[in-house]
């Protein structure tokens, strides 16, 4: 029998703060009531603050980030349109696969898993596209499978320097509300996230922010769609309603989650994620192990993908952690299966939780056959946290 707390260190779904969980424990309510907009209109406005957009429009689709991917594509592009995408992890691969299945002409740049979006190669191909055949460029901001964060602003610069008019799509599922993201400043046209990561909710909401340029493109897009139709949403969202039954309990949780983010301050949330992630990375380095991310420029502040020694099966590390120590680590996906385990460090997180992840990872690694000095990773992280402690921490837990 398992006792005590089960520790969740996968990169999503993430831990749900108790006040957020309690906020969802409400009776069902009338989604057509005259005061329903009192709940929903504020969510649309505050999500724009999280995306950092003043002019974009936010949509909330019952579903997941994958559903929001599909909504973004089908509302703004036409069958046969050429799009430029990079594949450097499992989630960027799945996005490529979706685009192909939806009938787009996908120009894929394959990059080693561990590298980020190839900005220079994108720039070269955009510069060579003299007739504007490329209608959209897709960037996975944070590749959750490899723990790699890409330079979205750099892709925007490449588009601007080439004077290219392609739409810029960004998958921010494991970055938005955790890693710096600036929709307006970076000229992002469609930005996707989900409820289950930085927003600290159960899975169930695909969240999509759409620029004015993309909204205009949606008026001429001919790809087939029904459930994900922007115009249906626009007409009803303006007064706080939806063209189908919305997940009201998730909306109540989202309200509390956004309140927590703004109480801490979005910049402080982002800084906290960096500080905590760096402690984890220093712990990994102290073990003598390496991240999948090829260089510090690519390090993700929401998930670390850790390569195990060649004679160790990462699946055993994960199994031992779960069965012996009540902890869930993320598994290696696709070509990284058995070679990598992942520590998710995003959402409702603090130093003590990161130290727990490192200490139980040490136990699990050792039991799986890795030569790890007990306490080495924990001590390295402690040194970092001691040197970089926040001056003061706002108490937002006791709401």
From TrEMBL:
List membrane-spanning regions. none
Kindly give the SUPFAM superfamilies that the UniProt entry links to this protein: PLP-dependent transferases
Q: Name one GO molecular function term.
A: alanine-glyoxylate transaminase activity
Q: Which UniProt keywords apply?
A: Aminotransferase, Pyridoxal phosphate, Transferase
For the ligand (substrate), the binding residues are 342
Q: Which GO terms describe its biological process?
A: glycine biosynthetic process, by transamination of glyoxylate
May I ask which residue range the UniProt record assigns to the signal sequence?
A: none
N6-(pyridoxal phosphate)lysine, modified sites: 197
PROSITE patterns tied to this protein: AA_TRANSFER_CLASS_5
Required cofactors, per record? Answer: pyridoxal 5'-phosphate
- Output the superkingdom of the source species: Bacteria
Identify its protein family.
Answer: Belongs to the class-V pyridoxal-phosphate-dependent aminotransferase family.
Name the chain's protein. Serine-glyoxylate aminotransferase
UniProt organism field: Rhodovulum marinum
């Amino acid at each position: 029998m398992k006792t005590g707390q089960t520790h969740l260190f996968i990169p999503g779904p993430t831990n749900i703060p108790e006040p957020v969980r309690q906020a969802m424990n409400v009776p069902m309510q009338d989604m057509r009531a005259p005061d329903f907009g009192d709940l929903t209109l504020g969510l649309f406005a505050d999500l724009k603050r999280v995306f950092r957009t003043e002019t974009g429009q936010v949509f909330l689709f019952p579903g997941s980030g994958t559903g929001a991917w599909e909504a973004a594509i089908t509302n703004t592009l036409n069958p046969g349109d050429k799009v430029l995408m990079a594949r450097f992890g499992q989630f960027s691969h799945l996005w490529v696969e979706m685009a192909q299945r939806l009938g787009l002409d996908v120009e894929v740049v394959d990059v080693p898993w561990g590298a980020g979006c190839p900005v220079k190669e994108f720039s070269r191909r955009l510069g060579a596209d003299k007739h504007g055949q490329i209608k959209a460029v897709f960037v996975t901001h944070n590749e959750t499978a490899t723990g790699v964060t890409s330079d979205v602003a750099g892709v925007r610069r490449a588009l601007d320097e080439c004077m290219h008019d392609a739409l810029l799509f960004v998958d921010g599922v494991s970055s938005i509300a955790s890693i710096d993201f600036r929709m307006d400043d970076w000229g992002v046209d469609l930005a996707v996230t989900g409820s289950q990561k930085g927003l600290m909710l159960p899975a169930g909401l695909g969240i999509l922010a759409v620029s004015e340029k993309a909204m205009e493109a949606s008026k001429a897009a001919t790809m087939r769609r029904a459930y994900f139709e922007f115009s249906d949403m626009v007409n009803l969202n303006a007064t706080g309603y939806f063209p189908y039954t919305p997940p009201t309990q998730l909306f109540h949780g989202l309200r509390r989650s956004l309140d927590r983010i703004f109480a801490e301050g979005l910049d402080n949330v982002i800084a906290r994620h960096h500080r905590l992630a760096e402690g984890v990375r220093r712990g990994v380095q102290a073990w003598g192990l390496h991240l999948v991310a090829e260089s510090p420029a690519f390090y993700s502040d929401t998930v670390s993908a850790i390569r195990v020694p060649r004679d160790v099966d990462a699946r055993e590390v994960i199994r031992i952690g779960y069965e012996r120590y009540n902890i869930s680590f993320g598994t290696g996906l696709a070509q990284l299966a058995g070679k990598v385990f992942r520590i998710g460090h995003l959402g409702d997180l603090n130093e003590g939780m990161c130290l727990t992840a490192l200490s139980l990872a040490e136990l699990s690694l050792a039991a799986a056959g890795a030569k790890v000095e007990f306490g080495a990773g924990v001590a390295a992280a402690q040194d970092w946290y001691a040197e970089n402690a926040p001056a003061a921490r706002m108490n937002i837990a006791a709401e």
